[in-house]
Amino acid sequence: MSKLTKEQILAMLEGGLIASCQPVDDGPMDSPEIVAAMAQASVIGGAAGLRIEGIENVKATRSKVKVPIIGIVKRDLADSPVRITPFLHDVEALAAAGADIIAFDGTDRIRPETRDALVAQINAMGCLSMADCANFEEGMYCRNLGVDLIGSTMSGYTGGEVPSEPDVKLVQDLKAAGCRVMAEGRYNTPELAALAIKNGAYSVTVGSALTRLEHIVGWFVNEIKAVK
Known about the structure:
- By secondary structure, this protein is of the alpha/beta class.
- The chain has one domain (6-227): TIM Barrel (Alpha-Beta Barrel).
- The chain contains 10 helices and 8 strands.
- Strands 1-2-3-4-5-6-7-8 form an 8-stranded parallel beta barrel, surrounded by 8 helices.
- Helix 2 (32-44) packs across helix 3 (55-62) and helix 4 (88-97) runs parallel beside helix 5 (115-124).
- One of its GO terms (molecular function) is N-acylglucosamine-6-phosphate 2-epimerase activity.
- Its EC number is 5.1.3.9.
């Protein structure tokens, strides 16, 4: 399969849904074959792109789909709260596995590699870049580094109680400042996904509500229990 150009990738994603195919860690669906099947089913349903975690999962998915893949690696580090693609060698491995876009934690926190170095490495590997940010200032910092997609991914997840609603205002503010915004984080209904696009998001990523069956079933069970 010939490699898509940057312009082709962005055109395919514009106004579309990105399905984040990330099963619950160590759950019964946590295997490359099942992740690839989730990805194929998502594309059949109309997903414009995919967000895939893990090198083996990206490899398995790349051979099954033609839509753009946003690749990440998650790590739990002892000396940093940053989990998403923290190392330069993660970037290299994701590119080799077939990711078109590489996402990294764009927050202003203690980290093993600088955001500048990660963006430079992504560019050197010939991939597009995406920064998972928590606030406007982080988004603008990453935009000024030349990051292709600014995600609202980390909003609400860097301390304190996690909000129940998505951060639509962050999407609005980043869009107004000239960013190409990936709305992500708690867009867990079709109506909220549409709201993201309506408010200026370039694309919207949905994860748990699509591909984490344990979570989805739990939502239903909890609502049923609440009325007993």
